[in-house]
Design brief:
The protein is α/β, with parallel strands linked by helices and 544 residues long. The protein folds into 2 domains: 363 residues, Rossmann fold (3-Layer(aba) Sandwich); 125 residues, no CATH class. Helix content is 37%, strand content 10%. The chain is built from 14 helices and 13 strands. A 7-stranded parallel sheet has the order 2-3-1-4-5-6-7, with helices on both faces. It has a two-stranded antiparallel sheet with strand order 8-9. Helix 11 links the parallel strand 4 and strand 5. It is globular. The protein starts with a helix and ends with a helix.
Length: 544
């Protein structure tokens, strides 16, 4: 038995679980030190927040927003009935609810609050999907599995073959590692069960507490050794719940995310490779799993100063819900159509707290992103949670179009922590001197959870809506700014930090330190107060 094996598994679990538990009914049952910290000011509050409260209290106190900003949240779904999102959900005024008629003739029936692109016309919904690289392997397996060399492949299919081989190698590695991990953890738990069985004569239970193990008195050397080993485990935080959670994680990997035979899409019946096959889905924007999307929406728009839950960032804002992201990888086509829907229905900002390693129909998303650029819509995207340098390892969607041309309406966001110390950069956060514009609070953030609950979570998924919220706050008071000007304001006003921080990593290597300002284009954290100040200056310049 290896004591450190459990520690590694525990770190692995904690590193892959973004939210904790099933939510809390009251905020005070969470860590109240994390409540609304993203709204605080670095100078006055000594917390690396984004100065939202200061902006309201000092710069906006006698001003009225000129425009209500619509933010499309492309995600897994949002609990639009949450108590802290009251009056913050977008309503399609050209559609009559629940009459079964496409009143506005946009192809989507009863799309009152947005649209669900991963549901069927009959009301069924996709909750889980496999990874994109798994789908790539499955789609090309019959054609390429028996091919031994590239010389045997038609030149027109060579690109597909190379993609297949790359994904197949990765798939085989991931699948085997999960099989091995399951075997190891099962052997581990069997050994632990044996020790507990041996010590049952002292504890009188097969589910002993740490105190019961510590109270064992024996002269038997083998029993003493068992007691000592179990005490180490309990001290490390061992619990059967962790083991069960890890086994569930492995089983989900094998049965869902790595399942070559999974066909969740069958309930929809569309052609995922045909962007013209676009009218499918249903109006259920909450869906079966809405914890992630609700969390995102709360950071942007939770009602401020209502003595309920949290304070969102932007007051004059509405959330349009576009459900495209299952538990697993999203389809490019759904993302593209969601972007187009958002633009066509008046969204000013699109929040995208999702991403994946492969994008076989990237051209679909590129076309939609260009469309959003043409219409002046700001797109804010989470940089990713793999501790990767995005300059080297691509994550999709991205701002580089198929011809490698850049766009000017895209902001990629890394995750920062609340203390000005060496851990300012989130350990999990992706970064990039040329691909990530800035950072924002994304470590230990409290926000909304479905059914009027709350939760605490970490991820660039949390940092992304902070930037979207700040953008909405600025734009609601200065709607005359173009999307390019707004992006310029947000980047130029970011608070830069030159201190050395621990470089994001998976925790398995020795800590390396770099200057925080080398991790992104701006080298800073978004700042609402400074952005409002700069927007005022820009508007004065435009008017004079």
């Amino acid at each position: 038995m290896r004591y450190y094996f459990l520690l590694i598994l525990t770190v692995f679990i904690l590193g892959n679980v973004i939210a904790q538990g099933n939510g809390a009914t009251t905020i005070d049952s969470l860590d109240v030190n994390c409540l609304n910290w993203y709204n605080l000011d670095p100078s006055s509050d000594k917390v690396i927040g984004v100065s939202v409260n200061r902006a309201y209290n000092e710069l906006l106190v006698n001003k009225t927003p000129k425009k209500k900003i619509i933010i499309a949240v492309i995600d897994a779904g949002v609990d639009i009935y949450h108590e802290d999102l009251e009056d913050k959900i977008w309503i399609n005024k050209n559609e009559i609810a629940d009459n079964g008629i496409d009143d506005d003739h946009n192809g989507y029936i009863d799309d009152i609050h947005g649209w669900n692109f991963i549901g069927s016309i009959n009301g069924d919904n996709i909750a889980y999907e496999n990874h994109e690289y798994v789908r790539i392997v499955a789609s090309f397996q019959s054609a390429f599995d028996s091919v031994e060399t590239e010389a045997d492949v038609d030149s027109k299919e060579l690109a597909n073959y190379r993609l297949y081989r790359k994904c197949k190698v990765y798939y085989d590695t991931e699948y085997q590692s999960n099989i091995d991990a399951k075997e190891q953890i099962e052997n581990f738990t069997n050994n632990i069960d044996s020790l507990i069985n041996v010590l049952e004569i002292y504890t009188k239970t097969l589910d002993p507490t740490a105190e019961q193990i510590a109270a064992i008195q024996t002269k038997n050397k083998a029993h003493k050794a068992s007691k000592k080993y179990l005490q180490k485990l309990y001290k490390s935080g061992f619990s059967s719940a962790y083991i069960d959670e890890y086994l569930e994680y492995i089983d989900n990997n094998l049965n869902i995310y790595l399942n070559l035979d999974l066909n969740a899409r069958d309930i929809i019946g569309d052609d995922v490779n045909d962007i013209e096959d676009s009218f499918y889905g249903n109006s259920n924007v909450k869906g079966p799993i809405s914890d992630h999307g609700s969390f995102v929406a709360g950071i942007i728009a939770a009602t401020r100063n209502n003595n309920i839950g949290i304070d969102g960032i932007a007051n004059s804002v509405e959330i349009m819900v576009l459900r495209t992201v299952p538990d697993g990888d999203e389809y490019d086509k759904d993302v593209a159509l969601a972007i187009k829907y958002a633009v066509d229905n008046g969204a000013d900002i699109i929040n995208m707290s999702f991403g994946k390693d492969y994008s076989p129909n990237k051209y679909m998303v590129d076309q939609a992103v260009k469309y959003a650029q043409e219409k002046g819509v700001l797109m804010v995207h989470a940089a990713g949670n793999e501790s990767n340098n995005n300059d080297i390892t691509l994550t999709y969607p991205d701002r580089l179009m198929g011809n490698k041309s850049d766009i000017d309406n895209w902001i990629a966001v890394g995750a920062s922590a609340k203390d000005d110390d060496k851990y300012l950069a989130g350990s999990f956060s992706n970064y990039g001197k040329t691909t990530v514009e800035l950072f924002a609070p994304g470590v230990d953030v409290i926000s909304l959870y479905p059914e009027n609950k709350y939760n605490i979570a970490s991820g660039t998924s949390m940092a992304c809506p902070v930037v979207a919220g700040v953008a909405a706050l600025v734009w609601s008071y200065y709607p005359e700014l173009t999307v390019t000007e707004l992006k310029g304001v947000l980047l130029a006003s970011a608070t830069t930090y030159t201190r050395k921080v621990v470089m994001p990593s998976d925790g398995m290597q020795k800590e390396m330190k770099v200057k925080f300002n080398t991790l992104s284009i701006t080298g800073g954290v978004v700042n609402a107060y400074k952005a409002i100040e700069l927007a005022e200056i820009k508007m004065n310049e435009k008017n004079n």
